[in-house]
Amino acid sequence: MKWSFKLGTVAGTEVRIHLTFFILLAFVALQGTSDNRGIAGAVDALLFVSAAFVCVLLHEFGHVSAARGYGIRTPDITLLPIGGVARLERMPEKPAQELVVALCGPLVNVAIAAAISTCLGLGMALNPDFHFEQSGRFWEKLMVWNLLMVAFNLIPAFPMDGGRVLRALLGFVVDYEKATRWAANLGQGIATVAGLWMLLTGHFSPVLLLIAFFVFMAAGQEATALSQRQIIQGLQARDAMITDFHSVSEQATLRDVVDILLSGSQHDFPMVDAHGSLVGMLSRQRLISALSEHGPEHPARLVTESCETHIPAMMDLSRALAALDAAACPALPVMDTTTGRIVGLLTSENIGELLMVRIALRPRR
Ligand SMILES: [Zn+2]
Pick from 271, 272, 335: which is nearest to 304 by CA? Predict the structure, then answer.
């Protein structure tokens, strides 16, 4: 995700924080100073919001570890002001698996709330006089926060966990496509009603309105992503790869690569050795920054990145697409596994074109 930076890596999953998160922190600190509590109020507020987001992170790791149990990796988690987003390599398509993965996040919050209430004495924080804005009472607030997270996440709207739970449950009775469409429609309906209600009654907070908008968009995207997956079903990487491309030799200078860049529309260049085997990939971005740093006579080999991910030509296109999404390179080399030679390049632009063509050729209803 753009505008985010890495905090660290936990069990193979990068934890990233979005820059807008700091706007939230500043806002919270400012609010903390407001009721005449000065710096102490700001520190209190910041401590609470940090603890709250640690709970958000643990919630995401609940999903991550459940997904890992089904062999699905999670390249990264990003903390945003509105919550955490775990980017799973793919979504489990078996309803039972999706149900477990979706429920394991909120379960973590249930566990945290239960642990706090056990330590503090049951029922203390659940008294009706409790006010969330009240200062102090850190653990009580944290427990209520975790319960609110459970309630909020179980709203049946994508991309909330409740939306996935609903799709999984529907998936037991109807096919995956129908289940997704129904769950997405319901999600958009809930977001629209909630948004309108907030606007018409004036009972709105900007954050909730933003979340309603975000849910509306995400529900639509979920349905689009699924229909895309269905369009490319049965296709292989070789059906979507660019076969008309230039490679550069190990002897090439940056000037040579720039010449090819300017003479055509290719942005990313595979470098091959004398035997035609792949050495690495040189992206346009890398090329331009190397050019300003080292000048045109610099050997291209020294700035070429070794590409960890190769796509076998016969790989399922949906898996290749997931690999492309997860990879750092904008283009991935497609290899003929018998000869070990590069036979094409896979870019999201080209896959997009393939989708447009397939949609245009779809039989009319
Ligand atoms: Zn969740």
Answer: 271
Distance (Å) from CA 98 to ligand 1 centroid: 12
Q: Same domain for 216 and 245? A: no
- Number of compact structural domains in the chain: 2
Indicate the residue among 231, 259, 279 that finishes a domain: 231
Using the mean position of ligand 1's atoms as its centre, give its distance from the Cα of residue 16 in Å: 16
Is 3 a residue whose pLDDT tops 60? yes
Contact partners, residue 113, CB within 8 Å, separation at least 6: 143, 146, 147, 150
Gap from CA of 129 to ligand 1 centroid (Å): 29
* CA of 150 relative to ligand 1 center, distance in Å: 9
Query: Do 72 and 174 fall within a single domain?
Result: yes
47 and 29 in contact (C-beta within 8 Å)?
A: no
Tell me the residue range of the domain where 163 lies.
4-231
pLDDT one-digit tens code per residue, 175-194: 888 888 888 888 889 888 88
